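G.,

No rush on this.
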Amino acid sequence: MKRNRVIAGNWKMNMTQEGAKALMQDVIKWMPKNLPSDVDVVVCVPFTLLNFVNDMIKGTRIKLGAQNMSWAEKGAFTGEISASQLIETGVSHVIIGHSERREMFNETCETVNKKIKYALANNLTPIFCIGESLEQFEKGETNATVARQVKDGLNGLTEDELTKVVVAYEPIWAIGTGKTASPQDAQNTIAFIRAELLKNVAEQMPILYGGSMNAENAKDLLSQNDIDGGLIGGASLKAHDFLCIAGSTI
């Protein structure tokens, strides 16, 4: 089975309506017309911009993503947002377990697992993030770290549910630092994730690279056998760079 490829932009806590309008106008205008049909282009924007961007991308092939969500449907959860609230704004994808959520906001593998299950129950596509710190990388603990995160994060999912998850490998030491894993190192880790951890569903699950992919290194990274796309941070805020990355899938 051929895997879909995914180019997902993570705007993080950036952009107001004015900037979002200018960026998305350029992205929509200059989106490569020959982009393969198996490539999903997703923009994961701040909650305040979901409705605004959704209105802009109607009638295009661009999909809307959120950067986080609760594992609960409703209740006394101040500051949280539910799947039904996201769906109402047009969201189809949601980032879950990003390293910044884990490190700064005490996200745990247990809450990540609950959120993935809740997203799937509501027909949202989870972009499930895993990755090692610089210390773990330097100690040679990359495989052990991602193995633990995959096991805990996907615990209890059926094979059918697993095929609906997108995995994003993001070495933490390469996020926002300008550093990036070499294409071969990224390929080796993602191949390990696919072959050793995902087993029966390995060939159906897209696995993205999420460590400072940009217009310059995208072609080399995306040419690797097991890298099916990218979770793009800073480069997704520049139309030219984001479209260069998307164009690297052609």
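When you get to it, here's the other one too:
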Amino acid sequence: MKSTEYYIELIHHTLSPYRFHHSMCVAEQAKALALRHGENAEKAYLAGILHDITKELPNEEQIRLIEENGQPLTAVEKANHRVFHQMSGAAYVKAVLGIDDEEIISGIRYHTTGHAEMTVFEMIIYLADFTSADRNYPDVDVMRQKTEESLYAGMLYSLRYTITSVVKENRVLHPDTLHCYNWVLNKINAAGGSDGANPQ
């Protein structure tokens, strides 16, 4: 694995200015969350830098990356191009950049949909993407507040937000997102039933 500066320079030259700025903001938020929750801050920072590395590639190129690296797309995934980049990004960092750290790869792989039984590291990358300093969507302040309360409170709020948005826009919902929602809700209920509970 090369230096952090190498990967920053890489995305600086390959991503649009907007996407580069977003990626650096996510990296900073991932680092802060990792420090707060006892995870490896350097790895979280790198996962944040690289999480959107393939987002601006044409869909056809992303599909090629995904399928050439052993991840055939399901019918649901083919119907929702917004999930391509988490899969193609994970394939790219492993196959092209030669990064073999499974935490970094899985953090990128699930930063859009989430999935059941997420690790703390995966939740950190997911929530860093939702709450980075550049984000200005409706409810972002609530999302940040919930994430401050606990990772699970942030996950539950973000998943509700995502599911509601997908349904309103008449888009296909990835089953990983639904499974993630059920898992998070069950974890919170088992810990006492409060949205602010932290079952860690």
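The chain is about 65% helix and 0% strand. The chain has a mean pLDDT of 94.

Enjoy the weekend,
O.
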